[in-house]
Structures are given as structure tokens and as C-alpha cells.
Write a structure and sequence with these properties.
Elements (H helix, E strand, L loop, with lengths): L10 H13 L4 H26 L9 H19 L7
Helix pairs in contact: 1-2
């Protein structure tokens, strides 16, 4: 396994992330690992959805339907993570 380091994180952001981790009963490290894992999983899911959209899996999904599903999932994720609307 490798170690990652993020520099220049504002203290208020670190404090907010630590608070969220605490609410979940996790250390900041465990929480951030989960966040990164979720991001990778979503990218993998996006690749599968794009494959369906392109007809590679025997189905032809409308691009608008795929985008709506992605937007809905991201909105749900942001609510769970407490991300302000339109924020990162």
C-alpha cells in the first residue's frame, strides 16, 4: 500500500472533515479512505454506464437517462456528505 499526502488543506476544511468523520464514528483517515474509495467506485460505475450507452452490453440507453441517473446519485452523495449545493 502507498501513503498519500495532501498539502495546503485549509484548517477549517480539515476541521469540517474531522467532524464528519467523528459523526460517522471514524478516524479522519478512515473517512477519507472511504471517500476516495467511493470516488473510484463511481468512476468504475460510470465506465459501465458508458458501455451500456454505447451498446457494448447489448442495451442502448439514452444518454439523457444516464446523465439523470448520475446527477441523482451525485446529489444523494452530496446530501450524505453534507456538501453544500453547487459546492465541491
Amino acid at each position: 500500500m502507498v501513503a498519500l499526502q495532501i498539502r495546503d488543506v485549509p484548517e477549517d476544511m480539515r476541521d469540517r472533515l474531522a467532524a464528519i468523520a467523528g459523526e460517522r464514528g471514524q478516524s479522519l483517515q478512515a473517512y477519507l479512505f472511504d471517500v476516495l474509495s467511493d470516488e473510484v467506485r463511481r468512476r468504475d460505475n460510470l465506465a459501465v454506464l458508458e458501455g451500456f450507452s454505447a451498446g457494448r452490453y447489448g442495451a442502448r440507453l439514452d444518454t439523457a437517462d444516464v446523465l439523470d441517473a448520475l446527477r441523482g446519485g451525485r446529489t444523494e452523495r452530496d446530501i450524505v456528505l453534507g456538501v453544500p449545493e453547487g459546492g465541491e
